[in-house]
Records
---
Amino acid sequence: MDILYAVIPPAILSQIFVGLSRSVILFIVSSGLSLILGTLRIPNVAHGSLYMIGAFAAYTVSGFFADSSTGFWAALILAPLFVALVSFISERALFRHLYEREHLMLLLLTFALSLIFSDLVKLTWGAEYKSVPVPAMFQGYVPLFGEMPFPTYNLFLLCVGPVVALLLWLLINRTKIGKIARAAAVDREMVGAVGINVSWVFAGVFVIGCFLAGLGGALVAPTISVTLGMDHSLIIEAFLIVIIGGLGNIWGALLGALIFGLTQSMGILIWPKFGIIFPYLAVVIVLIFRPRGLLKSAW
Amino acid sequence: MVTGNAALKNMLSAGYKTWVFLGVVLLVLLPAVVPLSAFRFYIYLASVILLYGLAATSCNLPLGYGGIYQFHHAVFYGAGAYGTALAITRMGISPWIAFLCGPAVSALLALIMGLICMRLSKLYFGMLQISLGSLVWAVVYRWYSFTGGDDGIQGIPVPDVLASARGAYYFVLAVTGVSFFALYRIIKSPFGIALQGIRDNPVRSEMIGINVMAHQLVTLVIAGFFAGVAGVLFVVVDNTVFPDMLFWTLSMELIIMCLLGGMYNFFGPLTGAAIVIFIRTFSGSFVEFLTSSAIGLFGGAISESAADSLMAFAASFSSYWTLVLGVICILVIFFVPNGVLGFFDRLKEKGREAVAVGE
């Protein structure tokens, strides 16, 4: 370990880990967005709102339980399911009628939905800051890299990221619904012609993508103060990650999330005042050299 | 009834020229007719509608006429406002010259961003524009010593002539009037026709010798310039700038204005801006009015305290105007995709067809 510290100082190592745990949240949210964009071709601006609803739902669910650990696990399951339900209703009621319309209309529809969602959140939960307790089992810090204390909860996040990535990969590449969804992304009419109900496949993909947004919200809730407007910056970040990774490519979303999270944490270390501009700068550089994203796009 | 119907038909078949003339007369006389008790409020409202209308119309030039996904137009609007504000407060340039700096900054920014984004098409173009725009926003948001950071800049000094609400209003009216005329001429010029040709069929346009890239780039610069003009007008009316003026949600609002009013109609975005600002300003009082009349009608059925809490809820509703806007937006997307003016155009056409059949 001493050799490692000689190469990379502990302060930087610790900041890298902070960036990685941020990347996990970004990956989970943007992989859902990427799935929807790649298969359904909907630039879903409401994705950020669903992430916010996930965080607020986690607050409500964890409030039901006196024990913070039980509350946490319950929230981790129930909050994304609630978000999935909300997305299912909006897909069946609104989106499915508009799949043939141009991107601009879909973008506006999802933006209108995000306006509605944010006011509904304000009506339901109020405009105050909410805090979700870190579960007892993940409280405190672990002494990582010598002196640097690292939050245990962030270590948990670092374990969740790869698990979600693996499950998603299995879903897309090893299950029937994944295969149908990939085929439908390429040629919707052909899939319909062989007797598959494309409309329901699309609904399924949309719900899974939104479930991931809710999961991201539930996971991030204990680390931040849950508040209105938490969707605004995240949705832009998620879109940029999807774009630099390659539309509809899950591994691209992972790569993009890593770039975004790491440049952000490193940027704060190098130049605290302008830390937030580094990820945007990275995105611009990537897109100038690889306009279609780093990995192969699904389109 | 018959005469009313005929009058309506006459109004509908009247060309836009009549409407524009009536609108201009109304706007010029507005300061003389609004009630003095709320003079500042109504004049401010009219000024804001005009300048947002200009921002939305300039957004519609690439979006509706050029078919370019101009997803982050607000950044040019904000750059114009900041360009002027910084020139006045930080560099001590005289306001009249600073008013020209704003649009120049916007046009330059549009040129730089356009050069970077032009290589991409459609959704990718829009996304790269959003990321570049967010970069600009992040710099403005964080650079406290120069741009004032998230507080923005308040109390920007403007010339004495423009300090009164009336003076600012007539300045806004004159500048937007000239800008609308210029934009209209641009759209009707050979350049504008070529642009619409590119929108409808880029490959064929390229084949007949139109330089697609150059046309689109010039469009972006013109759009950026007029967005900057709108930003300067905001500084004149409000004497403040803040980083939300460059945030992407404002860009979405501008696109919504284009959609609500109608993208394929020159005055669509202005109409949309008026609709959005009316919703923002009056949705609260409208809901209060509805609730109080409902209580007046069915007052006997509910208790006094229930009525009071209902009214309190209605009063709080003014902070939920985005909910109203979102619902209206969804209704427009589903039922009148060409916007309000597009809807009237179709009515007019149907009227003509009916007359033709009748004859």
---
Amino acid sequence: MAVSDQNMATGIWSGAESDEADAQPHLGPRQRWARRKAILQQAAVLLLVAALAVFVIRNTVVNLQARGLASGFDFLWQEAGFQMAFSLISIDPTSTYGRVFLAGLLNSLLVAALAITAATILGFAVGLARVSPSAPVRYVARGYVEIVRNLPLLLHLLLWQAVVLRSLPTVREAIGLGGFGFLSNRGLYLPAPVAGDAMAIAVAMVVTAGIAAIVAGWVTRGRAQARGESPPRFGPVLIAGGLIANAVAIATLDWQIPVLAGFDYRGGLKLMPEFVSLVAALTIYNSAFVAEIVRAGVQSVGRGQREAALALGLPPKLILRLVIVPQAMRVIIPPLANQYTHLIKASALATVVGFPDLVNVFLGTSLNQTGRAVEIVVITACVYLALSTTVALATSAYGRRVKLVER
Amino acid sequence: MAHSSVSGTSSPLVPTTAVRRLLATVVANPFGTAVCLGLAYLAWTLGLRIVDWAFVNATWVASDRAGCNPDGACWAFIVNRLPQFAFGFYPEAERWRAWIVLIAPPLLLLLAMAPEFPGRRKVLVGGFCLYPVASFILLSGGVLGLAPVPSEKWGGLLLTMVVGIGAFVFSFPVAILLALGRTSKLPAIRLIATGFIEFWRGMPLIAILFMSVIMLPLFLPPGVEFPRLTLAMTGITLYSAAYLAEVARGGLQSVGRGQSEAANALGFGFWAMQGYIIMPQALRAVLPGIVNSAISLLKDTTYVMVVGLFDLLNIVTAALSDPAWLGLATEGYVFVGLVFWSLCFGLSQVSARMERDSERAQLRAPNGGRKAS
């Protein structure tokens, strides 16, 4: 609370006499009246809210009793007794509601993470095309944005579900993606490593080390450039070494390529069409908004910045990386985070196409089976509030870090 | 864009007209030329195919799917079902009431474009404020000798309009109260308003709709029951109010402190000050944001599908499973897309025009266009 007690007491809604009140220990009759009025007003509002709460709680208790519904959180340890079409952790009919909740949450997070990554990449590409020096590219990007963002997200989703994926060939005539993956109207088939042996752990460690080396090399190079020094010799070596280590590690894994057997593909990873259409719709829809955010960010950087950098003799590539992008990011990040929150919430649309996300399995099936409406709604609300709060906190932390320090 | 040349300073290097500038970027380098040629080729082939499908080979009149040319669009499906897509299952004898409700918003918008006449603003604001209540009474009937029509029979574009405009209008006063609460100096009020706003903003609309259909009946005294449409609209209204409140708060913060101090000095009470001095300035400042909220609300009305209401998108989806018209998802969704696209794009153009107008007004302002900080 930024406002002190005295401040609050004197200015009711407005800050008319607050400054004087801070300086005066003795309150005049008007100030005393104002302070009393403020307390009375707040008490009245609190009383109203409390009365509403009592009314609602009483009705809920009566209604629940009338319907013979049990309450309490113990159902989380009860057997759920249903299957999920897709889950990252194993779910069978003996799994508890708690485990079903966890599986649904992980599914939601997976959809959101994939869509956020893809929408960011696509959105940045389209956004940069929006400010491209080439007019035709600009027109195409503008057309894309205007078409995509003026259609409801649900329409995007149903279009992907009912038109795009249905018009794909059947499993027998699936489109081969370079011989490794296959795309058919039953979903997307991708190769997957055979899990569960010591080899996989070793490979994972090598991959981690390789990524660390790449990041280290990249960071040292960027730092050196930012300081105007020549980049260290070992930087490129680190990056190349990391890349080679990753490539070797991934190649040595025992990849299982899906093979057509009977009516379906066997082996590898099968992504159900609902999942594909959900991620595709979320990606396309949000990419248009990301593109507009990126365009606004790039255009917010004054022309003088580029001209000054040119005058200092920076090469165009470095101007983009060291002058334009850092300043644009300051403008881009807050609305971008807002868009991410939107996307996370919109992933609940999975319910419509039947993908088992949190809302579908928990707020839908579990609620229907157990009838614990209040408990389930409270848990779901807490999850989504925690997710959006996390994004908001991360954004404000970033905002503090990149805040413009003015002399 | 980056290269807007000042008029009158045409140098031989800078082509002045738009066409020349376009040509200059096209032939600037080989890569650009290749990209442009590729795009032109793509646009040509794609455009030809679309025109072939949608117009040349399309069938407009047929009694079922079999009567349609399989190479083109089967618009006969849309034409046959148009009354249903517009009004849902509203009884045919009472359609004139639905017509009035459907026609009123475009008429009001036309009035907004019309030249100024005395009292125009009052008619506009009053029209839109009365619209939800009036359309509710007119559609449900039961009074003034109108036959009662249960809300389960409303559907199609009619339902989309009623839900969209209704939720928007109802959420407006709630949003203003919430915004005032959130900027209040009283900690208790501020806390309640902030918690309320953040709760509704943090939840997915799908979950809110589920909640309002499942939870709201539990909250009400036993025996009190509302139709699904009312329950869903309550949820959408509160959701939209939370978003609109944040827009309004932005507007409140843009009004300088001197305004409220001056109003206090003149002896204005709190509500008079808000109504005559603060709010008109605050809301005008964020008018584009308000229109943008309306656009996203209009798109979000499609979510009522999850609670079993037949809005335009859902009624078309339901019609797709008609055995006489199987396999026409593309036609159906293209139709829905065209309707929503023209509504949303039209509104976004209105918002963009407002933004330009306010910028121009600021340039003309006596302080030389500086914003009050």
